[in-house]
Structure formats: C-alpha cells, structure tokens
Write a structure and sequence with these properties.
Blueprint lengths: L1 H24 L5 H19 L1 H11 L4 H49 L1
Helix pairs in contact: 1-2, 2-3, 3-4
C-alpha cells in the first residue's frame, strides 16, 4: 500500500510542476517562483521515497518524528505565503484607492470645464 501513496505524490508533484512551468511561460510566475515550486515538489517526491531524510532533518532541529517536522514546516510556509499575499493585497488596495482618487479628480475637473 506504501507504493500507492508514492505514486499519488509523484502524480500530484508532476502536475504541480507542470502548472508552475505553464505559469512561468505565461509570465504569471517569475523565475524565483518557478524554482521555488519545482524544488518544493521535487523534495516532496524525494522524501516520499526516502522518509529517513525527513527524520534526519527533524533530528537536527530537535523534533522527534519526521512527520511532525513536515507539518511544522508546512505551517510555517503557509503563514509566510499568507503574509506575502496579504502584503500584495494591501499594496493593490492602496494602488486602487490612489487611481480612484485621481480619476475622481480628473472627472471633477472635466465637469468644471464644461460649465
């Protein structure tokens, strides 16, 4: 049954890597994003076939089980990514507010010129 999980991980990883390459080709993801996602999913496949590697890193950090290490690392990664999305969202919101103000001022000036 162990091999079924490994095959599933390989399929998901290959799909995710292909999506990263497509988004890179469409210029929706930069080179850094492509490298990040490719490394992340490649490590998922490597650790699926060599779980002792995860345990090795867990021991270095002082965590007893490799699975716990993966969960902690995943939570940290998710919080970091949420933070990045939040910062980008705030930046976009500020930009939209600035553009809206500029358009309102322009429209107001056009209205004043007509009268």
């Amino acid at each position: 049954m162990y091999w079924v999980v490994n095959i599933f991980i390989i399929i998901v990883a290959l799909f995710a890597i292909s999506r990263a390459f497509l988004r890179f080709k469409d210029k929706k993801v930069g080179g850094t994003g492509l490298v990040f996602w490719t490394i992340l999913w490649t490590l998922a496949v490597v650790f699926a076939f060599a779980p002792q590697g995860v345990s090795y890193f867990a021991d270095i950090v002082g965590i007893q089980r490799g699975t716990d290490f993966v969960v902690y690392l995943s939570i940290i990664l998710l919080f970091y990514m949420i933070f990045r999305v939040y910062v980008r969202f705030e930046s976009i919101e500020q930009h939209v507010t600035k553009l809206t103000r500029e358009l309102a001022i322009k429209d107001r000036k056009k209205g004043d010129d007509k009268n």
